[in-house]
Structure formats: structure tokens, C-alpha cells
Amino acid sequence: QMNATLLPDGLIFVTGGVRGAGFNDMTTPVLSSEVWDPVTEQFTTWASMAVGRWYHSTVVLLPDGRLLSAGGDNNLNAEIFSPPYLFQGPRPVITSAPGLVRYGATFDVETPDASKVTNANWIRLSSVTHARNFDQRINRLSFQATATGLRVTAPSDPNLCPPGYYMLFLLNEKGVPSVARIQRIGDGVLTVTPPTNLTAVPGAGQVSLNWSASPEALAYTIKRGTRKGGPYSTTVARGVTTTSYTDTGLANDKTYHYVVIATNGNLESVPSSPVSAKPRTLPAAPTGLTATATSGTRIALSWVDNATNEQGFYIERSTDGVTFAQIARVGPNARTYGNGGLPRKTRYSYRVRAYNATGPSGYSDIASATTN
């Protein structure tokens, strides 16, 4: 009546059972656990349980690498076992992994510990009852390191890897497993359309992104890089449910590159086409604005250009000194403007501000003049 359970590293954890004669002698429980190593073909004794486990008992491997041992006739309780690999130092971390993959496909697993990973193993989710686990198997996956983690190849043969759910464990050189990510492998071609029409508009210390929705998407992941063409090594946001996002806290005058990935909750799309943008500082506002009537129909403006990064200046005019409207736009480094074709003996007020791709500066002081 013992249970045998596959561990993330391929060892087999054996617990429970009875020593006495007969079908289920609950007076002679086996409390010590053992582990079978299929490489050395040796058993090693591990820690003992506090409670006997016999007929109707169950043991399941948990995603964090521990094991839940429970039940057995008349045993309405459970114990948690922590294997030795949990005490061998830091464990690898899985930052993200797709929930659904297809046979023979490659998929990306984000992890900061790619250089330390020696094994990527799939353990099928358990189906255990009556001291029997009928659905156990391990698939040892091939992988390559990438800039952001691992590129893993899924099994191609459904006879060796039946469709269904598996726990992905990454293990380091000490055999310490990550907390697992549950993934499903399925038949057929499974795709999510990538977002389209991605645009990037720079601002002061930020970039605003907009894109067209993917028809299958439930959410989006935004990734950023500092080199054209990638790698896009920084995950800016995950789980964005709109088709826009503003990336803030950026350095000005530095170019950033972006892609957006759609997900339906299980499967991720390929990245969108990349876009780039360079946040810029806003230009400084002009000062010293003067307005002088040079004729009965013309007023001349002059100001001090305080910016070195403007693309031009907006000229605004008012007849009441309160409500202004833009009347002209002049190029960079301009310091004067002539407003002609005005009626005689009419008073006008003006203000000026610089602008660049990031946006406009503040306003200059208001200057007023009356045509002759």
C-alpha cells in the first residue's frame, strides 16, 4: 500500500505501506521514507512520517517541490514533506512562461538564472488514489540560453508526452528546483495574432505606446530594449488589458525600442513589429516678449530664445487679454514675428511658447500694443 512519486530531478520518492501480512495491516506501518535513484539503482532512507499511510492514502508533488502525503483508512489528516534539495541554497526563478504550447514548438521561459540552469523537466500532474498514481511521467526538455532566459523545445511525440498539464521545473547544478509553472501541451496549431500598428510617441521622460488589438488577446505584455532589433530584455508591463500604455521614468535624449506581445491567458503571440522613440526634455519658455506697433496695420514681436532644443515657436493672440488663439508658427531659433493686416487703432495682446517633439514649453509673459 505504499506510494511512489516522481520528484522534479527524476528521483522517485517512496512512502507509506505496511510490513505485516495480509492486505492492509494498519498495525505495522512503515514510517520511514526512501528515495530510488534510477541512475545508481540504489535506495536511500530519508525522513520518517509521523503518521502511517496505507490503503486509500495519497501523495502528490506540489509546484513548490514539496510533497503532500495524506489519508489512508481512518486517517483524516495530512503531512508535508520537504525534500533535501530545498535546503541546498537559492532556487532558480521562473519569471514567465506560456501556459499553452504545441508539439515540437519552442517557447521562451524568462528567468534571471539561465546561466545556472542545468535541467528543464516536465512532471505530469498527478492523478492519485488508493495508493496508486496512474498518470506520472517525466519529460526532460532540451533548451538553449537566451538574453532573457531559456528557449525550450517541447516534445514532438504525443505517445511519449500525452496531451495535458505538466509542471515545468528548472533545476540548477545542485539539483535545486524552481517553483514550477503549470503548462499544457495540446494538439494542432495554436496561435495568437500579434498586435499591429504599434506606435510610440515620446514625451518628457516617457514614451506613450498605442496599438491595434489582437482578436484573440485577453491581455498584453510590453517589452523594451536599448538596441534596435533587440534583445527586448526588460518587461515593462504584463497583463495590460487596454491597447495603450505609457512607459515613464525614462532618461531623456536616449532612444528606447519596444515590442508588444498578446496573450489569451495560455498562449503568447510572437512580438509585434518594433518601434522606437527618444524622450526629450521640454524646451525652455521664451522671455522678454515685446510688442511694438510699426504702422497702422502691423505689430512687430520680439523675444529672447532660452531653449536649445526647440523645433519652433507658437504665436498666440488675444483681443481681450484673456482668450488667446494661435495665429502662427515660426521655425527654430526665431526671435521675431510681424503680425500684419490688422485694423487701425485696435489693441492686441500676444504670448509665445517654444515646442519640440515632446511638447510645448510654458508661455512667455504677455505683451500688448495698439495699431496706429
Quick structural overview:
The protein is mainly β and 372 residues long.
Explain the overall architecture:
- By secondary structure, this protein is mostly beta strands.
- It has no helices and 31 strands.
- The strands form eight sheets. The chain has a seven-stranded mixed β-sheet with strand order 8-16-15-10-13-14-9, with no helix packed on it. Strands 26, 27, 29, 30 and 31 form a five-stranded antiparallel β-sheet that branches. The chain has a four-stranded antiparallel β-sheet with strand order 1-2-3-4, with no helix packed on it.
- The radius of gyration is 34 Å and the shape is rod-shaped.
- The N and C termini lie far apart (109 Å).
Output the strand order for the largest sheet.
8-16-15-10-13-14-9
Helix content: under 10%
- Beta content comes to over 45%
**What shape does the CA trace take?**
rod-shaped
Helical run tally: 0
The chain-level structural class is mainly beta
Q: Can you summarize the main beta sheet?
A: 7 strands, mixed
| Cα-atom radius of gyration | 34 Å
Distance between the termini: 109 Å
- Give the tally of β-strands: 31
| Mean pLDDT rating | 93
Low-confidence stretches: none
